[in-house]
Amino acid sequence: MQWVKRTPLPDQEELSRLYKKLLVTGGCGFIGSNFVRFVFNSRPQCHVINLDALTYASFKDNLADIHDHPQYRFVHGDIRDRVLVDQLITECDAVVHFAAESHVDRSIMDPEPFVETNVLGTQTLLTAAHKNGKVRFLQVGTDEVYGQLALEDPKAGFTENDLLKPNNPYSATKAAGDLLARAFHHTHGVDTVITRCSNNFGPYQFPEKVIPLFITNLLEDKKVPLYGDGRNVRDWLHVLDHCDAILTVLEKGKAGEIYNIGGNNERSNIELTSMIIEALGQSQDMIEHVKDRPGHDRRYAIDATKISQQLNWSPTRSTWPQALQNTVQWYVDHQDWCQSVKNRKFDQYYEKQYGKQHR
Ligand code: NAD
Ligand code: TYD
Fold it and tell me: In ligand 2, which atom is closest to the CA atom of 210?
């Protein structure tokens, strides 16, 4: 028998590329601020420019601990500002694009800002990436672009090859952003990668989203408005697992590819709500059943086989009940933050969204 000497295959680490100058859009929001902190903790050589328009959902102070970091620069600006974006992209070797209008209920009330930022803003960035020619562009996407699964659907979860069937204006505009990223890769050869992640939880989430909304309501002795029958299902992933997955795809993902990211942690809203109430030692009577969200997607679930097998990523921080309890505790310990973000403007939104909805 003749032995053939083979060159060993490079392991995944050797295939990965380190990016040193990141343009992070939306870095003052929930996931973006966690990501910037995560990058400085895990990639000390990195420089980050954070471009954020500071909309209602963002707080510069979310990154107060990073502000004076010598490798950090905050730019207050809009991703639709072509001149600004063109200039910033030439200073970077990768773009991690978080900036978005992100709340489904607001997109039902008024879809226009969603089209402006999630579609036109993404196009502006991609055009600048095309002009620059050298940057890697990571489009931070959502599982909501796949539409919904039925509760009894035997499918384990959405795969990257599933059709896009967005059901609300938020997910429709996110799907448009993903498709633009795909098209810029195919037509112009821009080095794009797309991630599609399930629902995130963790610190610094704006309290219009269900977990921080319910925690902060309970801390204010207010009831929690549960939509419809409460049986809708979401797959919950800790925000730091998401940040880790994004960095993994940025460094190891293949150009033009899509990677689903999930927590393998499906929970019904009623189960989630009961756990939050229990963690705060309150009564289940604090649940107030309210009118359902129009077009409310029944179930989201992710099949994350591709990222797990090809890029060796899996979640390590999302195990419930502990991870949820830690998140509840973060909001308990940061009530000043909660109060400052739940300001007068938020009260107006709350009244508009929930005021007349109660059954
Ligand atoms: P967020 O609403 O907390 O933050 C969005 C940030 O974008 C804010 O800081 C805001 O000021 C900024 N922004 C909005 N419009 C802008 C504009 N025109 N120019 C510059 N900055 C602008 O959102 P998030 O929950 O942190 O989500 C971040 C990204 O992750 C979004 O693209 C969202 O679609 C995606 N995503 C979120 C989840 C989730 O569970 N939150 C899950 C999957 C994917
Ligand atoms: P949300 O946090 O808005 O995320 P998404 O719609 O992007 O999944 O909502 C999560 C789930 O919680 C969703 O099924 C809707 C439900 N929900 C309520 O029952 N009541 C609420 O007040 C909110 C904001 C959400």
Answer: 2
- Is the model's pLDDT at 347 over the cut of 80? yes
Pick the residue with more confidence: 356 or 168? 168
Pocket of ligand 1, candidates 24, 30, 205: which has the most ligand atoms within 8 Å of its Cβ, to mutate?
30
Q: Are 134 and 188 in contact (CB under 8 A)?
A: no
- Percent of the chain scoring above 70 in pLDDT: 95
d(CA 95, CA 97): 6
How far, in Å, from the CA of 102 to the mean position of ligand 1? 5
Which CATH code, of 3.30.70.1230, 3.40.50.720, 3.90.10.10, 1.10.510.10, is assigned to 18-204+236-264+299-317?
3.40.50.720
Find the mean pLDDT for residues 43-65.
95
One-letter amino acid at 10 equals P
- Three-state DSSP class for residue 102: coil
Verdict on whether the full-model pTM lies above 0.90: yes
